[in-house]
């Protein structure tokens, strides 16, 4: 849905008809396709007429009308298409991420709408068919951290709640991170075994939460942080996942200081 450069003067960001055309070009480079039958060209007619909403087509096979948003996160949304397109573009072009509060200020919606847009857009960036990370002769580092505003920066109200984040990193590979309610083996194990191949060598710190689940993997190495043992033998370390957390926290401080931990509900990569 996004362009490589963000030019806010582009009409697709404020004209809903142009936004729709933009989406149609992206989704249907060869012309409209029925989302139910997959047919196109002479099987499709564009509906015209005063009572018809813009961008509606009809399939001659299933005889049902459709538009470019059918089957997407935008289907039946009351949010104007130009705002969807702009929100997606802003999200994709903000390297350190953008909070829903910032989006609200930039696109003139209320907070709930901004939050909803980002949440749905993030959801659809995840490939549901992707497999687990790691595998034979691969090392997967796992670790957890806490993210949240510092109490001293908050003038009123109770201290901000910290969000627990659990992350898995395949060395030289993909990162997946998850917002978890609590850090214990009951919450971490299902994430671990679903997202990391059990043929992998698991690398963690010595936290008890990994002891039992670690036995399910081809191997389990631990690093003893309390003994200042961060890198041993060039293999036993968890620096990859720790560097990822450092980057994540910098992004949180830069963009998410009014902490919006919900954004972690879906995996980041
Ligand atoms: Zn059809």
Strand content: 15-25%
Name the average pLDDT.
84
What would you say the CATH architecture of the largest domain is?
A: 2-Layer Sandwich
Rg calculated over all Cα atoms = 23 Å
Helix run count: 7
In CATH, what is the class of the largest domain? Answer: Alpha Beta
Number of strands: 8
Shape: elongated
Could you say what the CATH topology of the largest domain is called? Nucleotidyltransferase, domain 5
Taken together, the total number of domains comes to: 2
Question: Can you give a write-up of this model?
Answer:
With 269 residues, the chain is an alpha/beta fold. It folds into two domains: 11-123, no CATH class; 139-265, Nucleotidyltransferase, domain 5 (2-Layer Sandwich). Helices cover 29% and strands 15% of the residues. The strands form two sheets. A five-stranded mixed β-sheet has the order 6-5-4-7-8, sandwiched between helices. The chain has a three-stranded antiparallel β-sheet with strand order 1-2-3, with no helix packed on it. α1 (16-27) crosses α2 (81-93), α2 crosses α4 and α3 crosses α4 (111-123). The longest helix is centred in the last third of the chain and has 17 residues, at 239-255. The structure holds zinc ion (ZN).
Give structural attributes.
disordered C terminus, single chain, alpha/beta, 269 residues, binds zinc ion, Nucleotidyltransferase, domain 5, 3-stranded antiparallel β-sheet
Short synopsis of the structure:
This protein has 269 residues and is of the alpha/beta class. It has helices at residues 16-27, 81-93, 100-107, 111-123, 185-195, 211-214, 239-255; strands spanning 44-46, 57-59, 65-66, 139-147, 163-170, 175-180, 201-205, 219-223.
């Amino acid at each position: 849905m996004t362009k490589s450069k963000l030019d806010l003067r582009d009409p697709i960001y404020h004209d809903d008809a142009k936004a729709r055309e933009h989406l149609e070009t992206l989704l249907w480079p060869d012309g409209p396709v029925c989302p139910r039958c997959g047919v196109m060209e002479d099987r499709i007619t564009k509906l015209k007429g005063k009572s018809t909403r813009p961008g509606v087509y009809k399939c001659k096979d299933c005889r049902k009308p459709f538009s470019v948003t059918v089957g997407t996160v935008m289907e039946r949304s009351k949010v104007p298409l130009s705002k969807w397109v702009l929100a997606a573009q802003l999200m994709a072009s903000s390297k350190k991420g953008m909070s829903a509060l910032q989006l609200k200020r930039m696109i003139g919606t209320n907070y709930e709408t901004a939050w909803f847009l980002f949440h749905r857009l993030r959801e659809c960036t995840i490939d549901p068919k992707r497999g687990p990370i790691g595998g034979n002769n691969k090392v997967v580092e796992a670790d957890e951290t806490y993210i949240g505003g510092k109490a001293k920066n908050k003038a009123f109200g109770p201290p901000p709640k910290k969000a627990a984040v659990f992350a898995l990193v395949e060395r030289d590979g993909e990162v997946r991170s998850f917002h978890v309610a609590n850090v214990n083996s009951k919450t971490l194990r299902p994430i671990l075994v679903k997202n990391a191949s059990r043929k992998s060598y698991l690398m963690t710190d010595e936290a008890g939460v990994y002891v039992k689940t670690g036995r399910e993997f081809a191997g389990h190495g631990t690093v003893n942080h309390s003994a200042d043992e961060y890198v041993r033998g060039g293999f036993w370390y968890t620096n990859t996942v720790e560097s990822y957390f450092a980057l994540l926290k910098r992004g949180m401080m830069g963009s998410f200081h009014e902490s919006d931990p919900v954004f972690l509900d879906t995996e980041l990569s």
